[in-house]
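Re: Re: token formats

Sure, here are both.
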Amino acid sequence: MNEVVFKTLKQKDFIVKSFVLRVATELNLSLSDTILLIYLSNQEVPTLDIENIVLTTYLKQDQVLESFQKLVAMGLIESKVEKNADGKLGEVISLDNLIKNVTQDITTGIKKKSQIDIYNLIEEEFGRGLSSIEVGIIDNWCKEFDPEMIKEALREAVYNNAKSLKYIESILFAWKEKGYKSVNDIHKGMIEYSKDSNTKDLYDYNWVDED
């Protein structure tokens, strides 16, 4: 029998904790993200042991790293330096934030879900996954703008065939300068533009390069 297969079959099965499934479902995590959370939640002292994670989960190395960066950026897990049993410092992965996510109040939960929806929408429109830096940029948007405004800016970017975070951000700050605080404000502004310019298409207005 193949040695790798033999060692794999001898390993203990993972225990899939219900709170991990709850978080994965509510936040629409990818399969790779969920598998990594299950792996970490089964470790007595979770660490980012890439070689062992690849061996035991069948994920590829780039999938592990991408999911790890995404989960950190989302605030579900955290990398910390702690002393081990021998008194030596080492890097461990804290799941405290993941557990807190389960016990958080419903308002925060809804806000977090809306934020994840935005990640998923942008990934779908861009046709690729987001880097940890991009997740951080979107996270900052969510702190400053209404989630529906971000979705509207994404629609504008897609309509103008400008699928980039820089373009979306330019639209958001153009709206901010105009004092828009909701999608309703944006639509009112576009309707006024439509009346003034006698055009039928509300999305013809170029928020980024306006005079």
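Second one below.
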Amino acid sequence: MSSRSSKTGFTLVELLVVVFLIALLLAIVIPSLFKAQGRVQTVTCQSNLKQLGIYLVIYSNDNEGYLPSDSRDWMTVLLPYSEMAPSAAGSKPQNDTGSKSISCCPTAAQPGSIPPSDSGQPFAAFPIQYPHSSETVALGSYGINGWVCHVPSSEKEIYGIPTTKNWRRFDVGESASKIPLVLDSMWIRAFPDNTNLPPEKNGDFNNCDLTGGGMRQMRHFAIARHSGRTNILFLDLAVHQTGLKKLWKMKWHRGSDTNAPEPAWPEWMQTLPE
């Protein structure tokens, strides 16, 4: 009688087929995982902005309806209302991270250089400090539209624009849905105008405050953290994800020209979503 031989392993061809199938599945699954992670970060960021808006409303109610008077200190005045840092409000953040804080976008929760380098740091957090103090009490990666603040009457203009054009309050009428309040940002505040020059690259921090009397203030906010877009909390407390080019069509202050000609977009912005 003839004996039958049985297979005790895989052939090289079979192994190669299995490896190919695994690689194919990984190629399909991994991008989906990254997209899911991006969606979670976007939703968390929008939730943070909504929370900050609620605390600004509470602050406004406690201050005769006015928003903070100093745009540099808007986050510190909210500390009594919420735990802005992962540790107790008013104390130094644990592990130098803002990953558990509503004051940080989840894509920008790790501290960056101080001050930001000219190349910028769109995916880094900046320190939140009390006035005239060098102690970091929290980390942040959101900035306020400085034109919403209730500046003192002694301050007549900012970057050549009269402070009579500041919004100062929440109750400004129907246009509240068009007025940016808090945004993804590389710094704690900015005073944008529709005539500002666009950044030369994502995170371009070069001369944001010094060149052309504020002509580059938009650079604080024109950063692509969320698939080429940014998250914005508006004065009516709605939160929207917006294409960066639309920042030049928004009602930043009472004198904003929303029909101003678009600037010449740098190469990196030309292919961004509208």
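The CA atoms of residues 11 and 17 lie 10 Å apart. The first strand starts at residue 126 and ends at 129.
- S.
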